[in-house]
Structure formats: structure tokens, C-alpha cells
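User
New here, explain this?
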Amino acid sequence: MQQIGRVLHFFYSTATCDRVDRIILAGGAAGIRGIDRLVEEHLGTAAAVADPFTRISLVPEVKSSALWRDAPTMTIAVGLALRGFE
């Protein structure tokens, strides 16, 4: 929580925006069950766990339960892969 608070403080001190509407959590720690609610309660800002597969169709051979569990750690990889489709 302390690191997220520091990032927000830095953002507010350097950006022209005066508020953050939502915090998107990504990476390994985003996989901690209930972390989004904890962040929201502690910082008073809506929080959600990143899901880079929201608009991606999966083939039946992909084990979706394992993919969704690891999704927050794959945001950069999915973003880089999608760059080739633009």
C-alpha cells in the first residue's frame, strides 16, 4: 500500500490531473486474492486487477482457469503481442 501511495503522490505532484479514477493492478502481487478491495479501502480510489485477455477469444485447448489466474502477470506480453496486429 505504501508504494502505491507513493506513486500516487508522485503522479499528483507532476501531472496536470488532479484525480485518479481507477487504479489497475498488474504483476505478481495483483494475483493476491482480494488485493483490489484492500487497495480501494486503503486509498479510497476504485481498484481493479488487470485482465489483458478481456477482449481476446481463446481456443478450446487453452486452460482458461490457469490463464485467468496468471493474467495479471501477462499484461506486458499480451500488449507486445497485440502490437503486431495494429
